[in-house]
């Protein structure tokens, strides 16, 4: 399905579903309406969308994500936590985009993160 267009990764918690605190693998928050609409639009265009989430590191969590997708998106989406060369975009509440090959963040609202080096 991805063809030459590649696939779009969409984070689950805090991006596609409302997240306020960890409540266990069986709990996934209510859908974020604007993001669900965006995903449905991509799917209707024939784009491949994958749920890109840390929850995929727990194989037992994937069936709950599939159920959530079926209920709120109307389709079961592939779930992963692995990027590959076919991924063309990642929508995530924690990611900070950078201008390619520069290390310069895109946008003006970039959080300062203290890192001990």
Description:
There is one protein chain. With about 120 residues, the chain is of the alpha/beta class. The chain has helices at about 35-45, 60-70; strands spanning about 5-10, 50, 80, 85-90. A 4-stranded parallel sheet has the order 3-2-1-4. The longest helix has 12 residues, at about 35-45.
Helix content: 10-25%
SSE arrangement, N to C: EHEHEE
How does the major sheet shape up? 4 strands, parallel
| Residue runs with pLDDT of under 50 for 5 or more positions | none
- Total strands: 4
What global shape is seen? Answer: globular
Distance between the termini: 42 Å
Based on secondary structure, the structural category is alpha/beta
| Average pLDDT score | 91
> Strand-residue fraction?
5-15%
Strand order of the largest sheet: 3-2-1-4
How large is the count of helical segments? 2
Properties at a glance:
117 residues, four-stranded parallel sheet, globular, alpha/beta, 20% helix
Gist?
By secondary structure, the protein is α/β, with parallel strands linked by helices. The protein contains two helices and four strands.
Q: What is this structure's SSE topology?
A:
Blueprint: E1 7-10, H1 33-44, E2 48-52, H2 62-72, E3 78-80, E4 87-91
Parallel strand pairs: 1-2, 1-4, 2-3
């Amino acid at each position: 399905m991805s063809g030459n267009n590649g696939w779009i990764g969409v984070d689950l918690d805090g991006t596609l579903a409302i997240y306020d605190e960890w409540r266990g693998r069986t709990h996934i928050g209510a859908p974020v309406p604007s993001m669900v609409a965006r995903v449905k639009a991509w799917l209707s265009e024939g784009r491949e969308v994958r749920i890109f989430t840390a929850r995929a590191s727990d194989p037992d969590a994937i069936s709950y994500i599939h159920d959530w997708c079926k209920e709120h998106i109307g389709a079961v989406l592939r779930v992963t936590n692995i990027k590959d060369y076919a991924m063309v975009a990642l929508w995530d509440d924690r990611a900070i985009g950078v201008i390619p090959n520069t290390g310069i963040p895109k946008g003006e609202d970039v959080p300062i993160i203290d890192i001990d080096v």
